[in-house]
């Protein structure tokens, strides 16, 4: 028997979370004519009810990953151009007691809500209330991270109604952009770590959520610390990671930066030094770097002198870099 191509598709089972608690879905392998319906169905169950449309001949080609933590939910979406609409009937059928922060990592978008229509580009963000109608569209290929915080959590922190209003956050080029990048990186890292491994990241992401949205008038030190660490980790190969440079990137004074690291029983300089040695240790133990010269490893982690690197490594780990590599790779 031939089934018409426009026949209703049977309901698609909700993807089961993997061992780490991450749930994932993609329209890539679905028939073109069913991609939009499948995306709407998945979002109804995993995020919230919405309507989706696109002008692309390929229909919607998108992937989504979801991770639920005790106090928030993270979503990572990548796809082609499309528009989503949260219409009144979607809200009535499936109300959501949360506030969303969307960090746009790639692409250009518009956000149409009760106060008007605003455009945004990569590096900016949107705060929205899924219980208020809106349209959120992408005119290009896109990628975003969504941080969803339940209202119960926000109320615990004394959030006001003004804080919940939908709006575009024009943070590109501002110190807040560094916090947004840190939050996005932490969220993406959480998907790799899973529910158990990501527990330690949750408080940092919540703190960053408060800073980015403007809820925290005096941003928590934990958010600044997370941003500083992210900035340092991404630049360990650069020798000039001074406290002044880190403070400028985070958007605080050197004195404030010093106090934040002092609360962790260290200093910015010591943290950078320790991070360089830890990264070097990882590289020396990696089979892919087995034939990389010790001098090249030292440069890769920001040391300007191989002799200085070797002395520092020995003081920290009790052996030379060469001895450590031989033992780690079993080539002694």
UniProtKB/TrEMBL annotation:
InterPro entries referenced in this protein's UniProt entry, alphabetically: AraC-bd_2 (IPR035418), AraC_XylS_family_regulators (IPR050204), Homeodomain-like_sf (IPR009057), HTH_AraC (IPR018060), HTH_AraC-typ_CS (IPR018062), Tscrpt_reg_AraC-type_HTH (IPR020449)
Keyword Glycoprotein appears in the UniProt entry: no
SUPFAM superfamilies according to UniProt: Homeodomain-like
Keyword Transcription regulation: yes
Ranges annotated as biased composition (Pro residues): 7-16
Short name of one Pfam family: AraC_binding_2
Single GO MF descriptor: DNA-binding transcription factor activity
Domain of life: Bacteria
Residue segments, region Disordered: 1-20
This protein's UniProt keywords: DNA-binding, Transcription, Transcription regulation
Annotated HTH araC/xylS-type domain residues: 226-327
Listed name of the protein: Transcriptional regulator
Organism field: Zafaria cholistanensis
